[in-house]
Amino acid sequence: MGQVFEALSPRHVAFIEAQKIYFVGTAAAEGSVNLSPKGGDSLRILGPNTLAWLNLTGSGNESAAHVLQHPRMTVMFCAFEGAPLILRAYGRARVLHQGDPEWPSLLALFPPSVAARQLFLLEIDKVQASCGMSVPLFDYQGDREDLANWSIRQGREGIEAYWRKRNQRSLDGLESEILARSGLQADD
């Protein structure tokens, strides 16, 4: 049976900061549930009840579309080395785009990337720590450079064209607001 906390403790923060991968779960009221692995230097803990993560351009845009419909989000961390632990942060999320006032100050917390698509702020209302004794052990070999290299080749104009083509709607047809909230026009 896991332990439940109202906020991240210093021990939780240290565990999170040591992780190389985390998972984000979102869902609208109906339709597909999304679970996305995230890595790289893309997560910041802003306080015991707030974390932010940078969403880079990818093939789908489920998290943004889901949060606009239903702001619940779960972020999960697993120990793949050392003592077993699964840590989940549950709460309500907001999606921020380039046109939103908070964008510049929050984006400055992360390494620059032409692929920066959205920022998510999770207001944590519950943290659960559970054993994770069946999670296998893995050795970290390094971050993949594929997305960074692809993004650099695309350049800003190519990234924005990709958003127009692939990132406006979720798998279930929900709007992501990426164009309007990033100050971009749809192709006519």
Automatic annotation (TrEMBL):
Give start and end of each Pyridoxamine 5'-phosphate oxidase N-terminal domain. 9-130
Protein origin, superkingdom: Bacteria
Report the InterPro entries cross-referenced here: Pyridox_Oxase_N, Split_barrel_FMN-bd
Alphabetized PANTHER family for the sequence: PYRIDOXAMINE PHOSPHATE OXIDASE FAMILY PROTEIN (AFU_ORTHOLOGUE AFUA_6G11440)
Report the protein name in the record. Pyridoxamine 5'-phosphate oxidase family protein
Tell me the organism. Aeromonas bivalvium
